[in-house]
Amino acid sequence: MAGARLALEPCALVLVGEGRDVVVQDGATLVSEGEPGRPVRFDAEGDAPPPGAWRGVEVRRRANPETRFVWTHLDHAGAPAAERGDPPAGLRVFAPSLRASHLAVASSGGWGVALQEAGAFSDDAGPLTVRGAREGAVTVADVSRVSTLPLGDYRGNARDEVRVELRDAVLTASARWRDLGVRYRVPASRRLRVEGADAPALTLDPGVTVAFDDDAALEVGWRAPGALVAVGDGPDARVSLVAAGEGARPRWVGVLFGPLAVASTSRLRWARIEGAGRPSGAFLPHCAPAGPELDPDRAMVTFASIEARNVIRDTLFVAGPTAGVAVLWAGDREGAPEDVTAPSHGNEFDTNSIGCPQSWARVGGACPVRPSCARRP
């Protein structure tokens, strides 16, 4: 469809042959505008086609920005493309601002939607429904595009999740991840980094769950300023940062606030940190708690040489490192950090799985206090 324009009216039915796809190429425009009760439908040829009977719809980067899908259904797509490495999906988006309203993707043989390269939805997109996908609801290549996903219904798939591939793993502009009713997932050994010249903040709405596969981590403000705002709305609407897998814990590294993290805007409140405490590889200087021997490289939340006050409140620490700590205060600072175990802070620690609630930072190059694990609540 390079340079062409195709307009589809309500009740239009487009049948696509096995292994074929619909590609909106350079300068082309596809306007698919159905109405309530009279949607436009893309489907596979034949009676009772299986999931993945055709490849799907692909909107390329230089497609005309007037391309849009309104009250449109994409059914039984998601067959893999043999000559490309893109993930199979009912809808593959490379365009930077795709317009979509009441779009439904059903019975995909792969992912429901794949946002590739700079692919993203427009600010006014939604609602989006993804159901019956054999891989999962959505996969996103660039972390900066995750926040463009519209509200909708992403449940009823093999994996009800938004997979954040992190091919571009640095969030350099502020973003908000909304509660889509399914979890966001960070792949194994990947580092989701929040930092940039404009001090970006990643805001996680109440109810959001971000699941981390083995050895993944969330890094904030290590090479440039950055902030994390993970604030729930009470005990029944927490922000959850958890291990993706089951079994032995901990599975992921944790949240690492670097020396350039913006402590004045970062918040962990009404949050849940679960399954963190794998080795970070940072080996930061700190003052070990008195009592059992603990590994200084195993912590669920780490603060490296920043003056962080009032950051952690009303937060649960669950299934952490038995040979580590929940909160690691590292580096050298002017005054002792605040005590996150103080009752006024409202934090709770799973004492059966966490070696100690916190370590202590150095003050003036020395360890003036060695907190005891006996102070655990």
Architecture overview:
The chain is an all-beta fold. The protein is 0% helix and 38% strand. Strands 3-6-8-10-12-14-17-20-23-26-29-32 form a 12-stranded parallel beta sheet, with no helix packed on it. Strands 1, 2, 4, 5, 7, 9, 11 and 13 form an 8-stranded parallel beta sheet that branches. Strands 15-18-21-24-27-30-33 form a 7-stranded parallel beta sheet, with no helix packed on it. 50% of the residues are buried.
Give me some keywords for this one.
377 residues; mainly beta; twelve-stranded parallel beta sheet; eight-stranded parallel beta sheet
Strand content: 35-45%
Radius of gyration: 23 Å
Strands ordered across the widest β-sheet = 3-6-8-10-12-14-17-20-23-26-29-32
Tally of strands: 34
Q: State the secondary-structure class.
A: mainly beta
What's the total helix number?
0
Outline the secondary-structure elements.
Elements: E1 5-8, E2 13-16, E3 21-24, E4 29-33, E5 40-44, E6 56-59, E7 68-75, E8 89-93, E9 99-106, E10 111-115, E11 128-131, E12 136-142, E13 152-153, E14 161-168, E15 170-171, E16 175-177, E17 183-186, E18 191-194, E19 201-204, E20 209-212, E21 217-220, E22 227-231, E23 239-243, E24 254-257, E25 267-269, E26 271-274, E27 299-304, E28 312-313, E29 316-318, E30 325-330, E31 332-333, E32 348-349, E33 356-358, E34 362-363
Parallel strand pairs: 1-4, 2-5, 3-6, 4-7, 5-7, 6-8, 7-9, 8-10, 9-11, 10-12, 11-13, 12-14, 14-17, 15-18, 16-19, 17-20, 18-21, 19-22, 20-23, 21-24, 22-25, 23-26, 24-27, 25-28, 26-29, 27-30, 29-32, 30-33, 31-34
